[in-house]
Amino acid sequence: MDDLWHRRILNYPKTWIVICLIFIATAAIGAGNLYFRGDYQIFFDDTNTQLYEYQKIESIFNKSDLISIVMAPKQGDIFTPQTLGLIRELTEQAWQVPYSSRVDSIANYQHTFAEQDDLIVLDLIPPELTFTANDIADVKQVALSEPALRQSLVSDSGKVAVINITVQLPEADNTEKMVEVKDYVNSLVASYQANHPDIEFHQAGIVAMNYAFMLSSQDDFATLVPAMLLLVMIFLGIALRSIAAVAYTLIIIIGAVLATLGLAGWFGFFLSTPTVNVPTMILTIAVADCVHMLASVRHHMRQGQTKQQAIAKSLEQNWLPITITSITTALGFILMNSLDVPVIRDLGNLSALGVLLAGLLSLTMLPAMLSVLPFKVKPKSNTHNTDRYDRFALWVINHNKVLGISALLVVIGSAFSITQNQINDEAVKYFSTQNEFRQAADFMAENISGMSSLSVAIDSGNEQGVSSPEFVTMLGKATDWMREQPEIHHVQSLADTLKRLNKNMHGDDPQYYALPQDQALSAQYLLLYEMSLPYGLDLNNQLNLDKSSLKLQLTIDNLGSKEMVELESRLRVWFEHNAPQYSVMISSPTLMFAHIGERNMQSMLQSLPMALLLISVLLVFSLRSLRLGLISLIPNMIPAVIGFGIWGLYSGEINLGLSVVVTLTLGIVVDDTVHFLSKYQRARKLGQDAQQAIRYAFITVGRALVVTSAVLVAGFALLGTSDFRLNSDMGQLSALVIFIALIVDFILLPCVLLWFDKQQYAQAKNTNEAHLAIDTNTPQTNS
Amino acid sequence: MKMVIKRTLTASFVTLSLISAFSVLADQGKGLELAKLRKQADSGWQDSQATLTMELKNAAGDTSLRKLRIKSLEVNNDGDKGLTIFDTPRDVKGTAFLNHSHAVKPDDQWLYLPALKRVKRIASRNKSGPFMGSEFAYEDLSSFELEKYTFNFIEETTLDGQSVYLVEQVPVDRYSGYTKQRVWLAKSHYQPLKVEFYDRKNALLKTLELKGYQKYLDKIWRANTLVMNNVQTQKATTLTTTKLVFKTGLQVNDFNKASLKRAR
Questions:
Q1: Which alpha helices (DSSP H) does chain B contain, by range?
Q2: Is the Cβ pair A538, B129 closer than 8 Å?
Q3: How does the protein's chain sit in the membrane according to the entry (chain A) (predicted)?
Q4: Domains and CATH numbers, chain B
Q5: CATH topology (fold) of A1-33+242-380
Q6: Could you tell me which of B155, B178, B157 has the C-alpha nearest to residue B167?
Q7: Is the complex ipTM more than 0.90?
Q8: Predicted confidence (pLDDT) per residue in A712-761, tens digit
Q9: Do the Cβ atoms of B128 and A535 come within 8 Å?
């Protein structure tokens, strides 16, 4: 069957090339359907508890997608005529931001006060204010004492002011609309920055974060893909020393990438921060398939065979290893499906598809191209190199006890140091300190408040229930308690509004700055207040339709996920003790990220045994040996153990990106083991002992393993340079694990084989290959 | 040759802009004329007492009901006077709102809070906020006065089979929440069938549909169902008039501060 298939390719190479090209082109058309999604929701399933609660809160109260403009005059005081005037102007301008539904700043804060029996409602900085010293003193006094403003729209220090713009983004083409909003704010800020160089501007809020997510994907795509292609060309040039070989390989791997992206488009996938790395992944991994094919063709041609014979021989020898390694690698990616993050599942599935396509193309289109197009080989010997690998094999064999025991110690040490790792997903820290959004977050954290938030929705269970004395008292206590928590910088609470109105309605007597203890009175205050507010500044973001539920908006430190979850449970415990009769929902994007890392890691750990089992079964099946299959577990598992051990010492922070590294690298490092063990086994079957077989394996595949590992390490290291930490951490750790895998295969695996594989191989003498008697001096070197 | 073409072009350009300038003027004239007809058609009713329900609906489809009564007094050459009494929700029952609307200067507004047993004047220039948390702004419900807008006639067209005039009106007050309103006036009685409200960035914010027009006093046309849809938030409010009586004998002194406390 295989023979027939090989002959079909080699007999009709042009037809095959055309078929493959048509397939690639047809698939690639689908790429037109691809679109970017830059929002943070892509990291969460619809069934995610925190996302569900958040969406529920959003549907009960108005949506609160925010973009904030942060202003800090360099002279360190916003309470100057110039800066206050500017805040007023920019607040007015901000209403022009597309999809804006609300603008909040100290300028349009609705200041209420009493004059006899009049309730006066005015902008804190009304249009006609001329900024006399008295005016400014008044504004400053209100801004820095009003709990609604302090630490939210103005910093305690009076150095920083914030303008919050709430946007209502339509569901459809959300990302496009988000970009429209951000672009508008960008140009607005840019023009103000140009006219006011003495003021530092930043942008924050969920819109800015989503935009940063999108920008980093595009940056990665624009820089990493070309860099990867360049890297592949350089590497191939060195390894294959043939321009034609480089060109054919590029055609195959670019074809695989195009077809994958195209099919992704046809299947309705979208591009996002993680999936944008699919091309880089495919480029990195697919190169190995081509290298094995080309190296083997070259080897046979050097041995004096014709090109067609060499291609046929190479196909025959490589179709099984390429198929198996493609499947194991794809399996590693497919196993990402057990994770809780939709876009990482997409990354896995698309990469798996790409790896399989690359494998397929390198077994069909590559030999077909080689057969039709020119491919020349200079006869040249490589004995020097193979000697080197043989010497290395001998060294390992001679020192197997010392090496094995040291390796064991390293593994034990790493196992301990793995405990140094802590799961931490903090969206702000996904961005490098060079990133504009990260800088804004850091600036805000230093000068006003964290950028993280929590929405707390409390349902009284009754219509108008939020005005009941019981509820109002609880609200007051909750607000006070929250303000005592060190992580909480600001609490937006209706309690403050009610206290203020109560005071206003009693002629601004400070004694009445207290919560009204009469249901009707609270309700009537709210009615009065609502009737006096302007467009966009209503209470709909804090109260629901029938006033049965209320929302508190907390601004908090940029906490790590552990501290975040701890704060959440502290809040929940408080409500359980102090307000058991009300149902409480707590959520925010920050909280979603805080939970997802932990859950993702759990899913990964649960799926790991399955991954190991599947891959081991595949190895047992392909090597047709249970013992070798079991032995292979050691070099397959240990690289991740050591890798995460080193990571514990180097960084110690585990985020979403890293939860995929174990399965991802497992699928890849298995390839090395497969190549090594299959050559080792071949030698053993021909009657050699473990030592000789190890030497044979080193000589035959040593260089190929070094070369393919090098390109993989380089590829992932390149990903490690991404500005986006989910990608860069994943790249760095994967590169590390693959590098360690090579060392393990070269040092620990031979030791283990020497110790545990001492038995004679049963079929040794009756295999029909026996007459080929391995000659260690003229091996296939795959170099 | 070149010059001739240039000159002809310039001439035709000037002519064109003159024509369009005239038509703008003409359209403004016609717009104002239609607005006058609208105002005229709705005058002479003296006073009215209405009972209304207001149903609020959010994007998720939850609803909430409010009941209120409105007493109105027609005032010539200024805005009308109104007294709104809230019946439900229970907690605001008895709360009464008195307003003397004005064409250009801010309305005078007083509120009686039964829980506080006091009348409070609200000094606020804001008229664009939501009325009782609904999608109606206070300004959407206040009386129609010519001085509040500049008008521009757009076209004669049809709306759901009815012949209408489409008029654009731009609020004069800087505290209005709108940049413009597009009003579809029925040719038969000059009252609006539909209004589109555009927000500060000139994006469509809300659409109001006025349904169930009935004739009162042989000449006054009033719609009994007003449906306001917020296209940005997907929230909606339906204001239904369940009872409406004209010429009930209300006097000016039924619309002063003292009358607020008496209002039931």
A1: 2-41, 138-141, 257-262
A2: yes
A3: Multi-pass membrane protein
A4: 41-262 (2.50.20.10)
A5: Multidrug efflux transporter AcrB transmembrane fold (1.20.1640)
A6: B155
A7: no
A8: 898 889 888 888 888 889 899 999 999 999 999 999 999 989 888 877 77
A9: yes
